[in-house]
Amino acid sequence: MTMTDPYTCPSCSCGQNARTVAAGPPQLEEERPETARERVNRKWNEVLQETRVAQTGISILFGFLLSVAFTSLFGELAGLDRGIYVVTVVLAALATASLIAPVSLHRFLSGLRVKDELVDAAARLMVCGMVLLALTICGTLLLILRTAVPSLLAEVLVGGVMVWFGLCWYVLPWMIRRRAGRRR
Fold it and tell me: Per the UniProt record, which residue ranges are transmembrane (predicted)?
């Protein structure tokens, strides 16, 4: 007599878990409105996930920018390129501060029952950080392209990239938000 796993599908030898087979397809929970507490917790978790993505990007970019000053070619940068570099490094520092600020806010405000305000402030800092990140990326791109192509072409390319950032990061969400507002 062979022992069979009590959780293996009894009707055949497919190897499926009997609990899954017996339960059938997953049932959707009845939709219920989320409570104010659930909503603020969901929003906070969303801000944290977004922050993680943006922090990774600015950390890598900021590290790259900081290392540039220690290369042998940095001494050869002309005055304008040095100015672009300085502005770009400062933008990266500001973006880093804005994108890490929600963590600091949470740590200092934890337990004070101000999560709604925390989420609002963190969301504003994220938007500010994303603007600064876009400017940092464009400054870095300008600095790199000015060494690779004629100056005017570099500026036109960076202008196009800035327009693209504006469209993807700000105009598109604004349009979707506006369209969703009309459906309500």
Answer: 58-78, 84-109, 121-144, 156-176
Domain that holds residue 57: 37-179
User: Would residue 140 count as lying in a domain?
Assistant: yes
Q: Is residue 25 part of a domain?
A: no
Q: Which long-range contacts (CB under 8 A, 24 or more apart) does 38-43 make?
A: 40/115, 40/116, 40/119, 41/115, 43/119, 43/123
* 43: in domain: yes
pLDDT tens for residues 25-62?
555 556 788 898 888 888 888 888 888 888 888 889 89
3-state secondary structure of 154: helix
Asked if residue 124 is part of any domain, the answer here is yes
Total domain count for the chain? 1
> CA 150, CA 146: separation in Å to the nearest integer?
6
CA distance 162 to 143: 14
pTM, two decimal places: 0.73
Place of tokens 């105009």: 171
Among the ranges given (70-84, 140-154, 166-180), the one the predictor scored with the smallest mean pLDDT: 70-84
